[in-house]
Amino acid sequence: MLFRQLEPRTARTAAEVMKFALWPFAVMTVLNRVFIKAINGFVTDDYRPVYNASFEFLNGRPLYTADFSSVDPHYLYYPSGTLLIAPVAAIEYELSRWLFIGLNAVAILLAWYLLLRLFKFGLGSVAAPALLLAMFTSETVVNTLVFTNVNGCLLLAELVFIHLLLQRRDLWAGVALGLSIAVKPTLAPLLLVAAVRGQWKVFVTAIGVPVTLTAIAWPLSADPEKFFTEVLPYLMKTRDYFNSSIGGNAAYYGLPHWLVLVTQGLMAGIVAVSLWLLWRYYRDDELFFVTTFSGVLLTASFLLLSLGQMYYSMMLFPFLMTVVLRNSVLRNWPAWLAIFGFMTYDKWLSDRWQSIGRNLEYLRVTFGWGLLLVVVFCVLGDRYLAARREGRLQFGIDPAWMAKAPDSRDGVEEKPTPAPAPDRDDPVTPIEEREPALK
């Protein structure tokens, strides 16, 4: 059956044309990113400090010895994260790095499949190659593989968490989230999603897993207390390099502190109103609510907390996929201008206009995250004001025309192309009109 799918055929529908065109691009792009760009590596190497710390952990030596005055990548994982990731140092560095690249690539591919299924798409749909190509051409996937960090595994944990949360399998959803928090706190804001849905059992395992792993790792580490006395204070500070949060760019450009606080306060207000409108009017539309609420929360955390790096945007893939839902807040061009800002792999550094190019490159991520939050606020606010003006708030805030808009949940799985009818220009000769056979 697999080889039958690979058989060269001439497309008969527009959907088949798109699939036949996109699949080769998608597959070859994946192979290029994993086996060429990632293996080649880059001057930024997130994996080296992880490997070195894992090696020291396995040999009972101190881990948290980084010089935080430098801009080189540092080892910043919790003791629980060290316990989980320590096996990578059981083999020599180069092979270990290749295997870790492979692990993250597989995790991203599994997340891609889970994302398709979450929105009711199958591998036979046009969405499958389109999404795969979009993911592996984005900056977040490319640099996750090239820099060799753990973000691919975190994306998989996020998709598993969302699937289990929607299925009301709370304890297992908490396990998926807890394993990610044990390594990095990137997905910790998603606990609020479980809280507003009243799924409190999620907290049992989401908190219990990292606490248990920390308790196991503590006596096995030479200096676990230094994470809390040295690493954690560093993480709480807003650094002025490789940081696209509001505070990070403000520190780089030397903006006054009051302006930073006003900007952060304004954006926090926009986020709060958006989250309230989502909870008030969309919490019964579970798929839309969970994915959109999560996306707004994570975008806000990247923008408003002390550290926001461009490749964190990988965690927004479930939110961006909501564009296939009829009530999506992303069906407008400003939303995709914002997404271009933090997803594209393009570089805006210019040899001719150096100052302008540098500003565009350094600020596009911050403005992208900020514009996305503004778009969500404006779309939801406009729907709310229109519904209040028309006296239909008790029925929700979606306009009437939206009920007939296309939606992936309506059943978008493409049906197999039927066998072609006989060519009418060359009709089959009826039996009675054929010449009699020679006797």
Automatic annotation (TrEMBL):
It comes from the Bacteria. It is a multi-pass membrane protein. It is found in: Cell membrane. The chain crosses the membrane at residues 20-39, 75-91, 98-115, 121-138, 145-166, 172-195, 202-220, 258-279, 286-304, 333-350, 362-385. Residues 403-439 are annotated as: Disordered. Pfam families: GT87. Keywords: Cell membrane, Membrane, Transferase, Transmembrane, Transmembrane helix. Residues 406-439 have a biased composition (Basic and acidic residues). Belongs to the glycosyltransferase 87 family. This is Arabinofuranan 3-O-arabinosyltransferase. It comes from Nocardia caishijiensis.
